[in-house]
Every structure is written in C-alpha cells, then in structure tokens.
Amino acid sequence: MRKLLEVIAKALVSNPDDVSVNEVEGERSLILELRVASEDMGKVIGRQGRIARAIRTVVRSASAKDGRRVMVEIMENA
Predict the structure, then answer these.
(1) Angle of helix 2-12 relative to helix 50-63, nearest 10 degrees?
(2) Partners of 35 in the beta sheet?
(3) Which residue, 34, 39, 18, is CA-closest to 70?
(4) 40 within 8 A of 74, measured Cβ to Cβ
(5) pLDDT (tens digit per residue) in 3-17
(6) In this predicted structure, which of 23-27, 54-58, 72-76 has the lowest mean pLDDT?
(7) 0.85 exceeded by pTM
(8) Is the pLDDT of residue 67 over 70?
(9) How confident is the model at residue 23 (pLDDT cuts 50, 70, 90)?
(10) Most C-beta atoms within 10 A of its C-beta, which of 18, 19, 52, 67?
(11) Candidates 3.90.1030.10, 3.40.50.2300, 3.30.300.20, 3.40.640.10; correct CATH number of 2-76?
(12) CA–centroid distance for 23 within its chain
C-alpha cells in the first residue's frame, strides 16, 4: 500500500522528492501518513477534498483483499 500511495502522490505534486509515506501498524489496521511540501498540499487535497477522497478510496480498495483497514492521513512536511 505504501508504494501505491507514494506513486499516486508523486504524480500529483510539483516536488516529488519531498513526498514521503510513513506506515503506522496497528493490530488490524494500518495508517499511512503522506507527507508533502507545503506548496503541494492543495494539489493533494483538491477542491473540497475531492482528490484526497479519491486517493483514500483507491488505497482502501486495494487493501480490501488483505482484510485490513487502511487509513490515509495527509500531512505537511516541516
């Protein structure tokens, strides 16, 4: 899932080198923390959150076969 999210995010942003994905594992869930440059936040979130919602849907659908719940959090690089 990490690689899928990374590929999608790098295709959307102006600074693909600033994209990083961190995995936080739980017992039955996985949280993917997507970090992008501050100037790329709007590109990843989209108008009214449409792109962020689409990214979450794709990742959730891809993870359905694993039987784990995957959540995507979008964060700004410091």
Answers:
(1) 160
(2) 20, 75
(3) 34
(4) no
(5) 999 999 999 999 999
(6) 23-27
(7) yes
(8) yes
(9) very high
(10) 19
(11) 3.30.300.20
(12) 10
Q: Tell me: the pLDDT tens digits for 30-52?
A: 999 999 999 999 999 999 999 99
DSSP string across 6-69: HHHHHHH-S-GGG-EEEEEE-SSEEEEEEEE-GGGHHHHH-GGGHHHHHHHHHHHHHHGGGT-E
DSSP assigned state of 75: E
State both tokens at 60: 């959730």
